[in-house]
Amino acid sequence: IYRLREGLGIVTNNVAEYKAVILGLRFALKQGISQIRIQGDSKL
């Protein structure tokens, strides 16, 4: 489990969730992590 943080300004909760996924995936790639599981509750 990792904790990451990035400023987003004023955005919707959906944009914040999608950006968090992208941030996490980029971090995983940089760390050489080959398996990752992403879970969310968005209905979009």
UniProtKB/TrEMBL annotation:
Taxonomic placement: Eukaryota, Viridiplantae, Streptophyta, Embryophyta, Tracheophyta
Organism listed in the record: Nymphaea colorata (pocket water lily)
Pfam families, A to Z: RVT_3
Record-linked Gene3D superfamilies: Ribonuclease H-like superfamily/Ribonuclease H (3.30.420.10)
InterPro entries the record matches: RNaseH-like_sf (IPR012337), RNaseH_domain (IPR002156), RNaseH_sf (IPR036397)
Name listed for the protein in its UniProt record: RNase H type-1 domain-containing protein
Transmembrane segments: none
Gene Ontology molecular-function annotations: nucleic acid binding; RNA-DNA hybrid ribonuclease activity
Domain called RNase H type-1: residue spans: 1-44
